[in-house]
Amino acid sequence: MKTYLTWSKGLFSDSYKIYDKGTQVGNLKDKFFSQSGIGILDKKEYLFQTTGFFEQKTQIIDPANNKVVGEINYNSWMTKATIILNEQTLEWKYENLWSTKWSISNSEGIEINFSGYSINRQIESNTDNALLLLSGLFVTNYYWQVTFVVLFVSFVPLWITIF
Questions:
Q1: What domain range is 146 assigned to?
Q2: What whole-number distance in Å separates Cα of residue 92 and Cα of residue 77?
Q3: Is the pLDDT of residue 97 over 70?
Q4: d(CA 94, CA 68)
Q5: Contact predicate 155/163, CB 8 Å
Q6: Which of 62-66, 76-80, 109-113 has the lowest mean pLDDT?
Q7: End-to-end CA distance of the chain
Q8: Strand stretches in 21-162, DSSP E
Q9: Is the dihedral angle over the CA atoms 53, 69, 132, 49 positive or is it negative?
Q10: How many whole angstroms separate alpha carbon 163 and alpha carbon 157?
Q11: Helix, strand or coil for residue 97?
Q12: Structural domain tally of the chain?
């Protein structure tokens, strides 16, 4: 069964909104630099809690029973991540150089394709697994935040020197 969703996020917003045919069906909200997020899709809620400093990983928690249901491990080049859910391992990766297309897949045939740029933000999936869909957006948001921090830290000394 193919699932087609769209998503939106303002430039300085802390929330992704997920839509099915124009109707909001979920969201992913995080606090910048807090290393945590809350995702809701199809009335299923999950908490994302990132730990560690150099080797960060994110635990995915089902708050209904306070149980860890998954984990996300990031690679140091910020191009891939491993998502582990219920004994199932999936790979998240960028599909192009501009980081506007990314996917989640595994050897059992699950495939979710995401795209996101100014006007065209969509998700195409052959699964309706809410946790996987939210995890894909969470990983992307995590890498975008890390990229922002790296750029900020790199350019602040230059900016201070100029002014």
A1: 3-162
A2: 13
A3: yes
A4: 26
A5: no
A6: 76-80
A7: 57
A8: 23-30, 36-41, 44-51, 57-62, 67-74, 80-85, 88-94, 101-105, 111-116, 121-125
A9: negative
A10: 10
A11: coil
A12: 1
- What are 12-54's pLDDT values in tens digits? 788 999 999 999 999 999 876 677 899 999 999 999 999 987 7
Strands 88-94 and 101-105: antiparallel
Gap between the Cα atoms of 57 and 55, Å rounded: 7
Q: Which helix (H) or strand (E) holds 4?
A: strand 3-8
Give the whole-angstrom CA distance, residue 29 versus residue 37.
Answer: 5
- Residue 90, pLDDT score: 97
Q: How far is CA 84 from CA 11, 51, 61, 104, 110, in A?
A: 30, 16, 12, 11, 13
User: For all residues of the chain together, what is the average pLDDT?
Assistant: 88
Four-point Cα dihedral 129, 29, 5, 135, nearest 10 = -40
Q: What percent of the chain has pLDDT over 70?
A: 90
In the structure encoding, which two tokens stand for residue 64, read together?
A: 């209904």
